Structure formats: C-alpha cells, structure tokens
Amino acid sequence: MDSEGKILIIEDDKSIAMLERDYLEANGFEVFIAPDGTQGLHFLDEQGFSLVILDLMLPGIDGFELCRRIRKEQEIPIIIVSAKREDIDQIRGLGLGADDYVTKPFSPQQLVARVKAHIARYARLTAVNTRTGMLSEITIREIKIDCAARKVWCRGTEVVLTNKEFELLVFLVNNPDIVFSKSDLFDKLWGENSFGETSTVTVHINRIRDKIELDTTSPQYIETVWGVGYRFRGKA
C-alpha cells in the first residue's frame, strides 16, 4: 500500500491516541495506532508511513530510544507529543532526530497543521527535480555531499545525518561565508509559518558539528559569529 498520507501514532494513552486519530482522519489521513514501542516498530517494519507521532513515556521501549531506532533506519518526519515539558527533554528529543516537539495538552488543529507542514516539506526535500539546477554532488575541503542519494562523507567516512540536519548542512554549504541568524535559518529551513523556537536551530547545528568537526570547541566548518548567528567557512 502507498505510504502517502499514512500516519503512525505510538501512544499508550488510548484517549489521546483516539483524539489524534479522529482529527487526522477528518483531514484525509490513514491512521494506525500502536500502544507501545514494540508494536510501533512492528508496524514500521511491515508498512510505509509518511510520518510518526511519538509519545515519550511508553511502556517497555521509551520514546527516546524508539526515536533513535526509527531515525537510524528511516528519515520520515517524527513529531514527539509528550507531557514532558522540560527544555532538556525537548533538546534530547530533537537531538535524537525528531523534527518537532509538541507538549501536552495540545491543540488538535495545531497538531494537524504541523503534520501537514512536515509531510509537505519532506516531500519537497526528497523530490528529484532536475530543473532546480542544484549540483548532484558538492565537495568542499574534506566534505563530500551526494544530494541525490542524500549521503554525506567527511574525511572519507560516511556520516549519518537526519533529514533536517542534511537540509541545514546543504543550505549552509550552498551559501558559504554568509552569516545567518538563528531566526533566518529557522524561517528558511522550518518555514516562517512553522511552530517552534529558534533554539531548535542550535540543537541541529551542534548535532552536525558533532558529526563533521574534528574539534567542536574550535569548528573549522560551521562557525559561530557571536551575537549574530552561524556561517559555513567556504575557504580553508
């Protein structure tokens, strides 16, 4: 079955799962519900989905571990919906590869809007459009990016980036030596009408640095311009 428009909800609170399902189905999505991580992984192995809505406090495999496992295998958008409201939980979830973080209680209409936005953005990113003029391969110093295959190598070793990390890195590489504020990057990469905070940008920048920099305390690729934002060094 085609995965387009199929949503997987991994949530042990039946009332919340049913609420999410009802609003998503009213907007034309096909919805599957898993009450725990084991069932969720089974669904993901058996079927293709456009997006996963993930609770953190699950029986058995918790949401953080589940997010890590999903992201290791798939690049589809992941939205965490959780009662955990602490910044550290949000930073950890985004750092493990989630694309968005929604705290309970939430607006069902807002959740549907986020689902639509992430699916549309992912579709644009994965679409192959030869009319864009984007280079299929980019090499800059010790970094090589295969845009068609969505793969990155650094110093000859492949590094695994999440969907948003890849998008952010490619954007910066294609705009070398230009300083972008966190607000600029959030608007360009997440969309000016997206819900969320610019701190998300910092989380993703730090994750990319962990994967491509020899020394994250003295980055050679993505520099911080204090009080302004970030820039990618185009020259050695």
Summarize the structure.
With 236 residues, this protein is α/β, with parallel strands linked by helices.
Structural notes for this entry:
The protein folds into 2 domains: 6-126, 3-Layer(aba) Sandwich (Rossmann fold); 130-232, Orthogonal Bundle (Arc Repressor Mutant, subunit A), CATH 1.10.10. 41% of the residues lie in helices and 19% in strands. It has 8 helices and 11 strands. The protein has helices at residues 14-26, 37-46, 63-73, 87-95, 108-126, 163-173, 182-190, 199-212; strands spanning 6-10, 30-34, 51-54, 78-82, 100-103, 137-140, 143-146, 151-154, 157-159, 222-225, 229-232. The strands form 3 sheets. The chain has a 5-stranded parallel β-sheet with strand order 2-1-3-4-5, sandwiched between helices. A 4-stranded antiparallel β-sheet has the order 6-7-8-9, covered by helices on one side. Strand 8 (151-154) and strand 9 form a beta hairpin. The longest helix is centred in the middle third of the chain and has 19 residues, at 108-126. The termini are far apart.
CATH-defined topology of the largest domain: Rossmann fold
**Main β-sheet description:** 5 strands, parallel
Number of domains: 2
Rg (CA only): 18 Å
CATH class categorisation of the largest domain: Alpha Beta
Helix content: 40-55%
Average pLDDT: 85
Please give a handful of descriptors for the protein shown.
19% strand; alpha/beta; four-stranded antiparallel beta sheet; Arc Repressor Mutant, subunit A; 41% helix; Rossmann fold; 2 domains; 8 helices
Write the layout of secondary structure elements.
Layout: E1 6-10, H1 14-26, E2 30-34, H2 37-46, E3 51-54, H3 63-73, E4 78-82, H4 87-95, E5 100-103, H5 108-126, E6 137-140, E7 143-146, E8 151-154, E9 157-159, H6 163-173, H7 182-190, H8 199-212, E10 222-225, E11 229-232
Parallel strand pairs: 1-2, 1-3, 3-4, 4-5
Antiparallel strand pairs: 6-7, 7-8, 8-9, 10-11
